[in-house]
Design brief:
Blueprint lengths: L1 H56 L2 H11 L16
Protein name: Cell division protein FtsL
Membrane topology: Single-pass type II membrane protein
Family: Belongs to the FtsL family.
């Protein structure tokens, strides 16, 4: 009878240690997940800012203004246009 009680005690202690280790691992993984999610949120914010900036920089009016004012470009004359068909 004592051997059975001792075996049960060992099994209970081993089970308790396993629970403690698993809880610690769960906390560590939860912290890693929170850090990863924060990183994702920062990257999504940066991506949104970059998309807005890209839209501003590629606006047709801005490109036309830079072409005419800063680069001195003009639209081509009619005799300079060639239409190519496939």
């Amino acid at each position: 009878m004592r051997a059975v009680n001792f075996l049960l005690l060992v099994l209970v202690v081993a089970s308790a240690l396993a629970v403690v280790m698993l809880v610690a691992e769960d906390r560590r993984l939860t912290q890693e997940l929170a850090v990863a999610r924060d990183g994702i949120e920062r990257l999504e914010g940066t991506y949104a800012e970059l998309q807005l900036e890209e839209g501003t920089l590629t606006a047709q009016g801005r490109i036309e203004r830079i072409a005419t004012e800063e680069l001195g470009m003009l639209p081509p004359a009619e005799d300079q246009i060639t239409v190519v068909f496939r």
